[in-house]
Amino acid sequence: MPVHTAAQPKVKPPITKVQMRDLLKWVERKLNILLIGRHGCGKTTMIKECWEQHLGWVEGIDYKYLSASTLDPWVDLVGIPTADGEITNVTQEQIAKVLAIIEAKDSGELTTRKITDILTTPDTPRNISFIQPKWLFTVKAVLVDELNRSHPKVRNALMEFIQFRSVNGRSLDNLRLVWGAINPENDETFEYDVERLDPATKDRFHLHIYVPYEPSFDWFAREFDDVDLSAGVCQWWNRQSEEVKDAISPRRLEYCVRHVRDDSGDIRHVIPDAIALGAKYSELVQIIRTSSPILREMREIYDAKNKEKATEFIADETNYDHCIDEILKMGYYRNFFVPLMPNEKIATLFSNTPKIRTFILENFSKYAIFEDILKDIHDTTGDSTLRSQISRLFSDASGKKDSKVGKSGFGALVRNPNADVPFTGTGNDVKLLEEQLLKTQGYQMEHTYQRQKAFDSLKPFVPSHNIKAPVACLLLKVLDLQICGRSHVNRLARQDRQGGEYEGLIAIINRAVDSLNNLGEDLSNFGKDYPKLFEIVMLMRHRFLFKI
Questions:
Q1: What is the mean pLDDT of the segment spanning 160-186?
Q2: Residues 6+ apart with CB under 8 A from 305
Q3: Residues 338, 359: Cα–Cα separation, whole Å
Q4: Distance separating alpha carbons of residues 189 and 476, to the nearest angstrom
Q5: What is the 3-state secondary structure of 228-249?
Q6: Cα dihedral angle (61, 64, 65, 67), rounded to 10 degrees?
Q7: pLDDT of residue 420
Q8: 45 near 218, Cβ under 8 Å?
Q9: Where do you find CATH 3.40.50.300 in the chain?
């Protein structure tokens, strides 16, 4: 259909806010109503709500919805012409045939086929009737939507229908009213693909109601059963620029709520054009998300600071999926809920979410669960940079805990009763150990394989009894500079297996530290003197013979 481009009216028609009581009054008075408004402003929804929810009407029984743009004037209204079989100009011959029917009936030979054969001949004159939809004669009301997008023949067929409630003079006795809905023919912003509605057709509607282009607080509140949500989204829409409002119809605003709240979808998929025009969509997302029942429950748990309930709440997959974006975004939620999550959830967030990684690294000393997770990550990650970062964190944290010796000090050495790391070395000649250590000092360690090989060459010479202080110090120095010159020490430390042969890196460090401790040597600057070893000890202090 061609787009109508008539001149804009000099005076804009008044926009009227329609209340439900108005609609019900118009139904009672049996008025024909034409609703005129932009797309998505709720014209059709308003009518259906009135007829179905307030009057209890059922579509197809009490009222009929017609989309005028798809109507056929004959099939849907006037009817399909057909011969009705009615006989005119009755003759004596035809009367005789009627008598023949009576005779066949008396003899028991009467059938429908026999009656047809008796009464009809090729030249029998007939009348034309119209087969019409059954609903025409049963419904009380009709809604003709998109009236000005219909074919002219449809609009012509509707003229009698609207005014006289009849079709080709045949009265529709049950029909009380006809309501229509159209987009405006002339709009200052949108060029609708509509036809100009014939003045005679338009004049058949008693009232012309121009519906405002804005979201309805009452409708959103009823539809989503949430007054706060309705107020929030309506106020957000009203704060936007006129260009953004034009890009977000009330119907599209509804799409936003459903997509974000019910499907946890990305609002940018719903209103990309409005966002390009400057829509503050993050505010709308916040309003929608915080109004959902699950998010409301999360907020109530947070306000009550109920950690037991919070732990149970966030362990539920549905709750987690629905709330995780809000938790990541809001710092106070993050501080409260993340430490209460299952370990695997925290570890996944640490790996995939930079914001959570930073949060855990900055707060690991406050939460035991963060400390345990970081230990596991350190032992399993292939990222040497991350492993070094975690090591430094533990080293720094230990230094802060002991103000006596400063950041790098080893602190008060107290035997750890929970550690079970006996040393199984059998070497007895400390002189050989010293020679091997001096030889190892001359090696250029470039690869983990070389460090492993050098470490294996040292182990047989480490005695099971106390080592002289200078040799023990040299042993720690070689381990720190040569064997642990980089952070590739995980393989070496893993040789200390619980219940197995304790002959890995921790066992050797324990042997040297134990010797120095027994000899009364000062170890308060261990962290400063042997920084790499200190990192390893702090990461695996549950295997270390001394408490820091």
A1: 90
A2: 336
A3: 9
A4: 80
A5: HHHHHHHHHHHHCCHHHHHHCC
A6: 130
A7: 62
A8: no
A9: 20-80+133-210
Rounded Cα distance, 64 and 137, in Å = 11
Block residue for tokens 């009236």 = 147
Query: Who wins on pLDDT, 205 or 72?
Result: 205
Per-residue pLDDT of 454-468, as tens digits, reads: 888 888 888 877 788
Find residue 81's DSSP bridge partners. Answer: 130
DSSP 453: H
Question: Any residues with CB less than 8 A from the CB of 260 and at least 6 apart, and which?
Answer: 267, 270, 284, 285, 288, 289
Average pLDDT over every residue of 505-510? 83
Kindly state the helix (H) or strand (E) to which residue 171 belongs, with its residue range. strand 170-171
Rounded Cα gap, residues 180 and 284, in angstroms: 33
Q: 136: which DSSP letter?
A: G
Helices (H), 187-292: 199-202, 217-224, 227-239, 242-247, 250-257, 272-276, 281-289
CB of 370 closer than 8 Å to CB of 346? yes
**pTM of the predicted model, to two decimals?**
0.50
Summarised one tens digit per residue, pLDDT across range 66-112 is: 998 888 888 888 877 776 645 455 567 767 777 877 887 778 777 77
pLDDT band at residue 403 using 50, 70 and 90 as cut-offs: very low
Which is more confident, 451 or 171?
171
Residue 157: which pLDDT band, with cuts at 50, 70 and 90? confident
DSSP assignment of 367-432, as one string?
-HHHHHHHHHHHHH---HHHHHHHHHHHHHHHHHH-TTT-TT-----EE-TT--------B--HHH
* φ, ψ for residue 121, nearest 5 deg: -140, 165
DSSP class of 302: H
**What gap in Å lies between CA 213 and CA 38, rounded to an integer?**
6
**What is the average pLDDT across 48-54?**
93
User: Cβ of 384: how many Cβ atoms within 10 Å?
Assistant: 12
How far is Cα 408 from Cα 399, in angstroms, rounded to an integer?
5
pLDDT at position 506 is 81
Q: What is the pLDDT of residue 284?
A: 92
User: Given this model, what pLDDT does residue 121 score?
Assistant: 60
pLDDT score at 389: 80
As a three-state string, the secondary structure of 324-356 is HHHHHHCHHHHHHHHHHCCHHHHHHHHHHCHHH
Neighbouring residues of 306: CB distance < 8 A, sequence distance ≥ 6:
none
Distance CA 192, CA 183 (A): 7
What is the β-pairing status of strands 128-131 and 170-171?
unpaired
Determine the average pLDDT of the residues in 518-526: 79
Percentage of the chain lying above the pLDDT 70 cut: 84
Q: What is the CATH number of domain 20-80+133-210?
A: 3.40.50.300
Report d(CA 536, CA 455) in Å as an integer: 15
Contact call for residues 424 and 500 (beta carbons, < 8 A)? no
Phi and psi angles of residue 96, each rounded to the nearest 5 degrees, phi first: -65, -35
Residues 19 and 46: their CA atoms lie apart, in Å, by: 9
Cα–Cα distance between 86 and 354 in angstroms, integer?
85
